[in-house]
Structure formats: C-alpha cells, structure tokens
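hey so i finally got around to running the thing on that chain from the lab meeting. sorry it took forever, my laptop kept dying and i had to restart like 3 times. anyway pasting the input first so we r on the same page abt which one it is
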Amino acid sequence: MAATRRLGGPGYPLVERVKRSVERHRMVKRGDTVLVAVSGGPDSTCLLDVMARLGDTFDLSLAVGHVDHGLGADSAEVASRVASESAEAGFEAHVVRAPDLAGPNLQERARNFRLGFLSTVAERIGAARVATGHTLDDRVETTLARLIHGAGTDGLAGLRPADGPRIRPLIEVRRAETRTYCEELGLAFYDDPANHELRFERVGVREEVLRAITERWGVGAMDAIARSCERLSEDSDALGGIADRLYPSIATSVESGVQLATPDLVKLPRGLRRRLLEQAVGRVRDRSGGIEAVLDRLEDDTVAPASFAVAEGMKVGVSSDTVVVDRGHAAAAESVDRP
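ok and heres what got predicted. didnt touch it at all, straight out
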C-alpha cells in the first residue's frame, strides 16, 4: 500500500472523528485489505485520504475502485485522473467503463453495476471491506426518500455504518465538511453536474425537502434526523434478532415453500408477524401488498381461509391452522376463497 499519511496537521479533527466511527461500529479488523470506492468527488476523495492517514492505526492495506459510468462528457477524463493519482499515491487502482446505461431507472442500474464491480474486485484482491464515501447527509436523504415510499423500520434506518462487507467511514461527517477537508489539504476533486439535476429523486429530496427543513428548523435538524436513523437501526436490529430466534419454532420447510403455525403467529405483535412472513417469503419487493393483506387477515378472529399473491409468482395461503408460503405457484393478483 501507499506510504501512510501522518495523522496530525490540516484536517486532523475530521480524521479523529472518522477513527472513532470506525472503532465504534467495528468497521475493520487489524490487517484488513480495504477497497475504497473513489468517484473523484469530494466525499470519496476525502475518504481515501482519511483512510490512508488511518492506515497504520488499523494496519490496513488499501486499493482503489472506480467506475466510469459514461454519463458525463468528462467521465473518461475523471476516470483517468483517479487512476493516475491513485497509482502515484501508491494504491493499486481498478477502473472499469460501464456499458450503455441509457433508459429508465438510470441511477438504480448504475448503482447495481457499480456494486457488482466493487464486489468482484474485492473478491479478486481479497478485500474484507469495501469503503464508500457516504456521509451523514446521504443517510438522512436516503431515510427521507424511503419515507416517501412507505418503507418500514429497516428501510427508514437508512444507510448503516457497516452493512456486511460494505463500510461507510464518513457516515457521521457532513457533506460540506468533506469539501472543506479537500480544500484545506489541496486535494483536487470533481463536481458531478448530476448532483444538481432535479430529475433524480435523491437530488429532489436534497434540494426541495431538506432545504425546506433546514431553512425552517436550522442545520441542527440534519443531525437530529441522523440520530433518529441510528435509533431506528438499533430497533430494527433488535426486532430482527427476536424474529430470527422465533422463526425456527414457528416455521417449517415444506415441499413447495414454508409453513408457519397460525396460532403461534397470532400471539405475536403485528411487527413481528411481518418480519416472520418476510423471512419466509425472502428478499422480494412486495409491490402488490400481499404480505400486508395476510397480516390483515390474521387479525380477523375467524382467520377465514384465503390466498394472496405476493411477488415473483409466490402465493400465501392462510387458514386457522397454518400460513403457507407457496413458492411454486404464479399468481398475478389477489384471490380470496371464501368458505
């Protein structure tokens, strides 16, 4: 890895805060190889420099990953600069040009490609962690965007400091601070014009929702919302842990899917029922609201037999004895079988 930067000097207070975040959330272990995602913007530029300054503290080896999404006229130039400056600093750089991403859900497809690339590189070089430059602002924006779409506790917790191999060392740092850090240390960065395009949801939340909040309640409102994110994350983990312990005693694997005991489910609060059902269904986006319909039916004292469509061709059958998640049937809409 590159020669480690000294800890003292310009920007050191921010480095110390990041160090505390890394330690508090156990983001790394001594000796880890960390792949740092660098877009070339102020957040990721700050992140790479801070992680380099903390290299000796945690005995880290760092590498750089960059995706040229090809969405801007100067994207190739930015990719070249990230690669050359990373190499000059002594970091192994991994750069890729994304395929044509034109079409609907542009940001989501770009994100999926980026995460897939970073995961592949991390596996290839033996990196235990992938560090991204998400800040406190990103966490708050994510929570508000998900609130608009009706997310549950897990979603409203927003971006977690550590999520599997992904870590976010700047999660307690404000976006404006990363820019100030780069300016203080003379680090060149790229301002992506897409960060100001209102057609993107995240930009709309930032420019229209958060701007109104901070104008009315002050900049401290951002920190307050971030504290709520943290508490939601803690509650989500607690509920998830309880559900994980309950699941083996309530759920049984059957030929077509999973069967849960209705009498055991109805004894539980709705929030835990939802988590158990979601665990049985798996990681799908239930846009049709089938799980909520099942929960409504379980609140009916008679628990009259019914069948509900969920997602990806799954169906959930409900009776007074069992709830069966059938993964082998395709169903496009809800159908209710009355006795």
